């Protein structure tokens, strides 16, 4: 189900590129060389790509954000862009194999939200991964806060699109109003459409659900519980929970008569469609570069 | 597999009780009534039970701890004690049915670590649960920090005991040195012995494991990752992870050649045996009271 989106490769609109490239390069040194290569695609640096993206994000750039470069440099020339959830070692290896060198990842590179390499002191795995990225000359930029700030939320919309639920999206509304369906059918639909092998559920498989709150990723117990308290949906669908927070809250609420069910999809697989949609969103903005999605996938096997 | 441990019921050692009771009651008002009822078991308040427990905990009482009363009062007479992981609505109902009124729970009552009822403002489920506890006159005491401080760690030892692994426990050592076994056989043994229907694993099912670090519950990514960095066990067995921390760390480490596998048992079921063992530990200290374990169980169904 996860395919390498190569929609842009093969498209060569020489005329528009020629104009854009010439315009961009006339103002920089090395112009004679640049013009002689004007039939080539424009060269983008990592910073160029970031700037192109941020133009579309309300309020960007943010003063405080985790969306920083985790490896590589802003000035390096981009040979190809890969989008993914987690820039895993496998994703890095596949990126290098494709001769791409810029990974846009939704989640951390070094196993903690701030990507502090000293979160665990002298972490050998962090050091090995830094060396691997450097060996391949790969830049990694986190695209978390900004993508969630895009309207519509890039992750949320990507998931809705992949699930075939875009028509239920109302701008500014968290709640999806859908034709009633049994919880078990909603779960089966999500597993099939998003390609998720296993999920965890709290709820009656037969209960009818029409009012759905979908919050991929790990939004935290306080936000998840608040949304249920405010909206009382028939089902809350999330990526990851703290079991002692949201899961126990839902279990108790149901035991005292509340209806809200909980579906836990898994963190990586719950948000991956948002990074897949990023390809469609970004590709037209960077003609000549290939933007591809490599899913990082569910880290677990289930027994 | 989860049975109601009623080991104490039916044991009536009148003579020793008579002596103890008389001794305790001679110093308090109402002595004539007390002595006339000296054939009854000693009456314990909630505070009496807490004091009896804390006598065995190094450094207790702690200045800062989450182990506080979540409902009821220190002065109320105890009619029976229930131990559990999460004091769920079901556990509360079963406690009331048994006419017990003191729940000793390892984890929060109100869905956040500090049991702040205003963690989510005006939380209706919290208010309903408070009313339920009050209606049944049930006191809930959290027994988390203290039980982990007991030597051996009450949770860890209870799990080892139930898994039949006590012989591998070395005081002061986190690492269990065991006869080598395939990861898949270790997983199957844990599922069978601890009664866990489903687990999530990262690792090669066939890999041999002899050096095991077992950390039930949700110790947090920093601690979990630190333990792997320090000890490089063949397998780390935990209750709950942040997927973006420990799970991704293990996935990457393995992709770069490290051996450590990860088994995620689920939070409640991973620590429940420690609250079951609390029955054996506490019952002899409170003669005449029934101490029983009611498992809170896995909140999820798995699909």
Automatic annotation (TrEMBL), chains A, B:
Pfam families reported in the protein's UniProt record: DUF34_NIF3 (PF01784)
Keywords for the protein's UniProt record, in alphabetical order: Hydrolase, Metal-binding
N-terminal signal peptide: none
Recorded GO MF terms: hydrolase activity; metal ion binding
InterPro entries assigned to the protein according to its UniProt record, in alphabetical order: DUF34/NIF3, DUF34/NIF3_sf
Binding site for a divalent metal cation: 106, 267, 271
GO cellular component terms attached to this protein's record: cytoplasm
Keyword Coiled coil: no
Superkingdom, natural source: Bacteria
Gene3D superfamilies: NIF3 (NGG1p interacting factor 3)-like (3.40.1390.30)
Family listed: Belongs to the GTP cyclohydrolase I type 2/NIF3 family.
UniProt-recorded name of the protein: Putative NIF3 family GTP cyclohydrolase 1 type 2
Lineage: Bacteria, Pseudomonadati, Bacteroidota, Chitinophagia, Chitinophagales
């Amino acid at each position: 189900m996860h395919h390498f989106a190569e929609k842009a490769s093969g498209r060569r609109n020489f005329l528009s590129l020629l104009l854009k490239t010439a315009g961009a390069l006339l103002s920089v040194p090395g112009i004679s060389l640049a013009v002689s290569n004007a039939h080539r695609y424009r060269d983008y640096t990592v910073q160029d790509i970031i700037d192109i993206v941020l133009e579309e994000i309300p309020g960007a750039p943010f003063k405080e954000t985790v969306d920083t470069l985790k490896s590589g440099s802003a000035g390096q020339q981009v040979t190809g862009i890969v989008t993914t959830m987690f820039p895993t070692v496998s994703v890095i290896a596949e990126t290098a194999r494709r001769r791409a060198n810029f990974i846009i990842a939704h989640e951390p590179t070094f196993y903690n939200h701030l990507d502090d390499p000293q979160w665990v002191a002298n972490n050998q795995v962090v050091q090995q991964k830094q060396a691997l990225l450097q060996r391949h000359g790969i830049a990694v930029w986190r695209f978390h806060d900004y993508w969630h700030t895009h309207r519509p939320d890039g992750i949320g919309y990507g998931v809705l699109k992949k699930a075939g639920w875009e028509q239920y999206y109302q701008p500014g509304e968290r709640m999806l109003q859908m034709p009633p369906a049994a919880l078990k059918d909603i779960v089966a639909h999500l597993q099939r459409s998003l390609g998720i092998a296993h999920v965890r559920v709290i709820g009656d498989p037969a209960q009818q659900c029409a009012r759905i709150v979908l919050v991929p990723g790990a939004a935290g117990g306080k936000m998840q519980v608040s949304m249920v308290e405010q909206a009382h949906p028939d089902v809350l669908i999330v990526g990851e929970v703290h079991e002692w927070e949201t899961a126990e809250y839902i279990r108790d609420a149901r035991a005292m008569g509340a209806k809200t069910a909980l579906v836990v999809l898994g963190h990586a697989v719950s948000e991956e469609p948002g990074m897949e949609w990023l390809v469609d969103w970004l590709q037209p903005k960077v003609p000549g570069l290939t933007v591809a999605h490599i899913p990082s996938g569910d880290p677990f096997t289930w027994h």
